[in-house]
Amino acid sequence: MSKRDPSTAFICLQTPNDILSYCAAFLEKTSDGVLLIDEDGQIIFWNRAMETIFAIKSSEALGVKAWDIHTLLANQSFENEDIIDKIRTDITRALHSGEANWMKGTLEQEIIDRNSQQRYVQFSFFPIETVRGFMIVYST
To answer: What pTM value is reported for the model?
Structure first.
């Protein structure tokens, strides 16, 4: 099986801005929840599906540190500061290395959203390397 040159994936598009526009439209319209964390741990993308799944508007999520959003995702406050510290440490390490045990498969979590709807959500994670380290994509 041969590898496909990624530069040919968008052959019909004329400019890098076209590619970005189409990718942004796809991510916004997909039924999969997607969020993107920048190299500093700040949420920089939160699509409509995330709003639906977690009943959290993008205006509430954007700009929030990834470790702080976990209390909203779980719809609970973590009274044990050690849990938040562990989440912060794990995410920070992943942002520097692009690796974490929790990125090696699918993570399933029970949630009760703000509308008291109980559901199980599966997350997968993957790093995107940048010149400053890594960004992390959460997909559900």
So the answer is: 0.81
